Amino acid sequence: MQKLIILGGGYGGMRIIQRLLPDLPDNIEIILVDRLPYHCLKTEYYALAAGTAADHNLRVAFPDDQRVSIRYGTVTSIQLQDKQIQFKDESVLTYDKLVIGLGCEDKYHNVPGAKEFTHSIQSMDATRKTYETINNVKPNGIISIVGAGLSGVELASELRESRPDLTIKLFDRGEIILSMFPRKLSTYVQDWFIEHGVEVINKSNITKVEEDGLYNHDEKIKSDAIIWTAGVQPVEVVRNLDVEKDAHDRIILTPQHFLPTDEDVFVVGDCASLPHAPSAQLAEGQGEQIVTILKKQWNNEPLPEQLPKIKLKGVLGSLGKKHGFGLMGERTLLGRVPRVLKSGVLWMYKYHSGS
């Protein structure tokens, strides 16, 4: 039997398994490696942190198939030359084909104290701790959220509904919130925050973080809890790999999504250097293409020199439970419609992700 090991049960890893199973060759065994016994809806971690979604609502079962075995553990290193995965408990797994989909973690941009004194929503474990911290903040306390990308915006808006007593400060480096989107969308979101009493601090520059507050342009702002959503990087195991990476430490791949030096090692999701910013959609699209290449490799068929451009359907974001925003192609969506659409997409994923 040949072993296909998939490191990480995220969006890309799940899509690869789902697409392989219907006609998996008899001589292939799939081993999924993860720390948890279920796939987690990372795009919804902000709701768990804010206390508006229950832990079990963010879980999707791994595929139940005798051809898929699940290995629980924490990966500490990948030995490419020996085709081995090493774990925290010092055990080892060998592979014939490998898919690295270990995801990302916070990037602190060398800000002193940021790692030690801020909370995260980058993993299920970290998000649970963040929820507990926020839940324990005293009435009328102050929550500071550093980073006003999609995660920061959704967390701030959800927290406004969950804890209306809190003072919420959202720190944004740009001149206006979500500046990478069309101005109409950015203005709508910024105005929503103003209307709902969330303090948006544009043109911010966080220079230091302490246990009881942060420094914006070296001016201290007291905070009862600080949540960091100001950038991500591949996990340390991937950053330690001796392979070619881009400026963001993501692994550079061939058009077929494997290492230029090793056609048996694929990278999917947040760890892969791709033309678009990391997202669940992108990881799933990449997973589809990796399946195509794996099947051709197993059948000893020639590989395509190029693969079709991965088509992204757009972006949908929430502003609490009743409002939202979206960008579908060139079309900007604002208000209730994008929020309803997002809820529908989430429902479809949870209950029909294997189709």
Give a description of the structure:
- The chain has 2 domains: 2-35 and 73-105 and 232-298, FAD/NAD(P)-binding domain (3-Layer(bba) Sandwich); 109-230, FAD/NAD(P)-binding domain.
- 40% of the residues are buried.
- The strands form 7 sheets. Strands 5-2-1-9-20-19 form a 6-stranded mixed sheet, with no helix packed on it. A 4-stranded parallel sheet has the order 13-12-11-17. A 3-stranded antiparallel sheet has the order 6-7-8, with no helix packed on it.
- It has 9 helices and 23 strands.
- The protein is globular, with a radius of gyration of 21 Å.
- The longest helix has 19 residues, at 280-298.
- The protein is of the alpha/beta class and 355 residues long.
